C-alpha cells in the first residue's frame, strides 16, 4: 500500500511539473504568477517525482 502511494505521488509530481514547465514557457502570464515561478516549481516537482520514481524502482528490485 505504501509503495502504491509513492508511485502515485511520483507520477503526479512528474506530470504536474511538466505541465507547469509547459505553462511557464509557452503561455503568456495573464495573472500575477510570473513565468519564472512556474518554471522553477515545475523543475522542482519534476525532479522530486523522478527521485520518488527511482526509489520505487529500486525498492521493487530488492524484493
List the helices and strands and how they pair.
Layout: H1 2-26, H2 35-62
Structural overview:
The chain is mainly alpha-helical and 63 residues long. The chain has one domain. It is built from two helices and no strands. Helix 1 packs antiparallel against helix 2. It is elongated.
Which descriptors would you attach to this protein?
single chain; 0% strand; elongated; 2 helices; 84% helix; mainly alpha; 63 residues
Task: Tally the beta strands.
Answer: 0
Outline: elongated
- Rounded mean pLDDT is 79
Main sheet properties:
none
- Figure out the total of helices: 2
Number of spatially distinct domains? 1
Portion in beta strands: under 5%
**Computed Rg:** 14 Å
String of helices and strands: HH
Class per helix and strand makeup: mainly alpha
Low-confidence regions: none
Summarize the structure.
The protein is mainly alpha-helical and 63 residues long. The protein has two helices and no strands.
Amino acid at each position: 500500500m505504501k509503495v502504491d502511494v509513492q508511485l502515485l505521488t511520483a507520477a503526479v509530481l512528474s506530470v504536474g511539473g511538466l505541465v507547469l514547465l509547459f505553462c511557464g514557457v509557452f503561455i503568456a502570464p495573464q495573472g500575477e504568477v510570473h513565468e519564472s515561478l512556474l518554471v522553477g516549481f515545475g523543475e522542482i516537482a519534476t525532479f522530486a517525482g523522478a527521485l520518488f520514481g527511482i526509489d520505487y524502482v529500486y525498492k521493487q528490485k530488492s524484493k
